[in-house]
Amino acid sequence: MEKPSTLLVHFDKGSAAMASQIKADLEGSDVAAKVDGMKRAVMLLLNGETLPQLFITVVRYVLPSEDHTVQKLLLLYLEIIDKRDAAGCVLPEMILICQNLRNNLQHPNEYIRGVTLRFLCRLSEPEVLEPLVPSILENLEHRHHFIRRHALSAISSIYRLPHGDQLIPDAPELVERALASEQDASARRNAFLMLCACAQERAVAYLISNVDRVAEWPDLLQMAAVDLIRKVCRSPNRGDKGRYIKIIISLLSSPSTAVVYECAGALVSLSSAPTAVRASANTYCELLSSQSDNNVKLIILDRLNELRTSHWDVMVDVVMDVLRALTSPNLDVKRKVLDLVLDLLTPRNVEEVVLYLKKEVVKTQAGELEKGGEYRQMLVQAIHACAVEYSEVAGSVVHLLMDFLGDTNVAAAVDVVLFVREIIETNPKLRVSMIQRLIDTFYQIRASRVCSCALWILGEYSLSLSEVESAISTIKQCLGDLPFYTASEEGEATDSAKPAQPVVNSVTVSSRRPVVLADGTYATQSAATEAVSTASVVPGSLSSTLNLRSLILSGDFFLAAVIACTLTKLVLRLEEVQPSKVETNKACTGALLIMTSILQLGQSSYLPQLIDNDSYDRVVLCVRLLCNTGDDVRKIWLQSCRQSFAKMLAEKQFQETEEMKAKSQVSHAQPDDLIDFYHLKSRRGMSQLELEDEVQDDLKAATGGFTKDADDTNRLNRILQLTGFSDPVYAEAYVTVHHYDIVLDVTVINRTKETLQNLCLELATMGDLKLVDRPQNYTLAPESSKQIRANIKVSSTETGVIFGNIVYETSNVMERSVIVLNDIHIDIMDYISPATCADVTFRNMWAEFEWENKVHCFLVHCSH
């Protein structure tokens, strides 16, 4: 059976002759050789080797040594070796060790005394410790704080042993007396912790008697005081809780950030009063802005998020303080800040929040920020969420964001154009200015997907004569001169040398690639590339404005089909708003010329790939439609598309509203709840905080806030029976799954009239489960029970099985009895939490993490 260890050292096992070499080194007079020999002996013992013949050598040649390193290694050696025989009695050789330890406790050197006292903290044999107690107590009054500090730790460890109160019956009184006169911070902390663990009333009395001086205590002692207050106030019916809350609030001004953090957490756990919660939230915000470590910032943001779930009204007031954490260069911190702020939006603070986010967007244009493109995308998504929820702020941000339609970060540009598409539908008042701004900035767009969405917006929302004409003119300018190639260029392109290929700087992908849908399945789509494309250099044209031409010449025929559809819509709209038939026919002819040029380019050998069938059919449909237009078709093209988009937005808004209703079903206040007017309550000299806390406690008691019936019911549902009711030992387990840790709380009940000795719960796992620790042997009295805990680590998403048995001995039967346990099946669904993911985020993660399983197939062609 594995034994508990207080020491862990890595060591590769050596040869069998190492033991004799160690003995020779210890018997020599060379101090360096003794140090090396003791180190190897300690490491061998830690790795399971038994060196019984070495003990006498250590007593004879190592005990008398005055070298500090040797004495330190000697104590480690004594800590590891077995001090009891097979019958459980202390070995007689330990008497020799007792005399040496007593000498060390009276040694003139402070270091020897200190390390010996620290060693005694790890001893659990009363027979060894009893003769040393007087020497330990003498060290409480030593002049050096190093020795007093470890003497207090040794007294605390001895007193907490099973029969420690018999070894030092007056330990709490001695420690309390030492604490009153002690000046060293660590020694005072050790004494205070001993009183907290063994004599809590004395620790509370010391704390109350020093209430006015707690703020001046060293940070180590303040942390111990906070822990004591947590334990004392755990009971819901303590009438003096307000006194302890005052101590916590006074410690919020401590110079130690660790103390301040602990006090903020303790304050929320002790009181639900708005004043206390507000003080805790302000403290967290100050730590968030003052700490530079990103891990600390993430932890503080988690605490603030917990406050948001339970005290949303208070957190709304500190939303601007939380936003200041966006100055951190870490993207994870920025993402958490934005997520938290979006959950705290109200009509009162949304304008302030959006204004701050606009300033951050402007900062990203300078190019000084690391990963500025990703940060800009996060800001755009946050502003989008603000504008969708509060439409009145859309007008102040949409024009600024439209400047980023040509962003080099394609994801950010896509977010901007999707934002523009939604705002132009939901805010009709902004339509005119947004269309004009889109026309002015269209030539800056370089991404195919952004161009496609922008063209759809122009085709749907260009309503007036000037808007339609400007949109057609802009598309023509971005396409450049027609045709896209000449016959001589096509002939040169088919040549083997191909010296006159157009210079296309865009990164292209085949337009016939499979696309990943939202559910993870694949579909065939003739989609354009989403990479950043720079304009092609075409002779006789300005490359900076010919973004559509460069994308088409890179083989993006999906975008070409979108251009054809947009021109068709614009021409159909022009027929309605243009009184002159001549101008209408002229625009229609120009659109047909562009479409036929696209078809000619797609079927030529000028480009490496031909136009795909979907895009070809789409362009041909547009050509036929412009040549022969009916009223039904006109209605579909000019009205139905926009109506479908509006319906999609309405369904999206409806789903979000339903989700919000579902979340708000568990209300904090019922219509028939008692309203407590605490202004009419008897104050009895209480402060405002104490009064608020008492009111909150009364409300919790009245509404069942202190009961946990739901949790108890949930626990009963997760209890698994491991043995039968007729077995001598009944066992059941409660399984707790937390992320990748599984904890088994096993209750074992002795149903016999006999004492069960060496009872052991032996567990094994199947699958990618790993048992962290093996439970020890226990002695179980008749009809008594024992709680045994086992920890298991999960290393994959496969289903695992935990199986095992209970082994025990009785006085009547010499052989060991075995009871086989029922298997425990750990399913993947037990440690997977449901979550939502946007389509765009899902596609990005799918591409980034490569979740597809690629299988290589080798086919053998058989000839018949």
What distinguishing features does this structure have?
single chain, 864 residues, alpha+beta, five-stranded antiparallel beta sheet, repeat, cytoplasm
What does this entry look like structurally?
There is one protein chain. The chain is α+β, with helices and mostly antiparallel strands. Helix 9 runs parallel beside helix 12 and helix 31 runs antiparallel to helix 32. The longest helix is centred in the last third of the chain and has 33 residues. The chain is elongated, with a radius of gyration of 39 Å. About 5% of the residues have low confidence. Keywords: Cytoplasm, Cytoplasmic vesicle, ER-Golgi transport, Golgi apparatus, Membrane, Protein transport, Repeat, Transport.
Helix content: 40-55%
The best one-word shape is elongated
> What is the strand tally?
12
Counting DSSP H or I runs of 4 or more residues, the number of helices is: 37
Mean pLDDT: 79
Which residues sit in consecutive blocks of at least 5 with pLDDT less than 50?
A: 496-513, 525-544, 704-710
Q: Cα distance, first to last residue? A: 68 Å
GO cellular component, one term: Golgi membrane
Domain Coatomer beta subunit C-terminal: 671-809
GO molecular function, one term: structural molecule activity
Main location: cytoplasm
Can you lay out the helices and strands and say which pair or pack?
Elements: H1 18-27, H2 31-46, H3 54-61, H4 68-80, H5 94-105, H6 110-120, H7 126-129, H8 133-138, H9 145-159, H10 164-167, H11 171-181, H12 185-198, H13 200-209, H14 219-232, H15 241-251, H16 257-270, H17 274-290, H18 294-310, H19 312-316, H20 319-323, H21 331-342, H22 350-364, H23 372-389, H24 394-401, H25 410-426, H26 431-441, H27 448-461, H28 465-479, H29 487-494, E1 514-516, E2 522-524, H30 547-553, H31 557-577, H32 581-602, H33 613-627, H34 631-663, H35 688-703, H36 709-717, E3 719-721, E4 729-738, E5 741-750, E6 756-766, E7 769-771, E8 778-780, E9 785-794, E10 800-809, E11 817-820, E12 824-826, H37 839-849
Antiparallel strand pairs: 1-2, 3-4, 4-5, 5-9, 6-8, 6-10, 7-9, 10-11, 10-12
Helix pairs in contact: 1-2, 1-3, 2-4, 4-6, 6-9, 9-12, 11-12, 12-13, 12-14, 13-14, 14-16, 15-16, 15-35, 16-17, 17-18, 18-21, 21-23, 22-23, 23-25, 25-27, 26-27, 26-28, 27-31, 28-31, 31-32, 31-33, 32-33
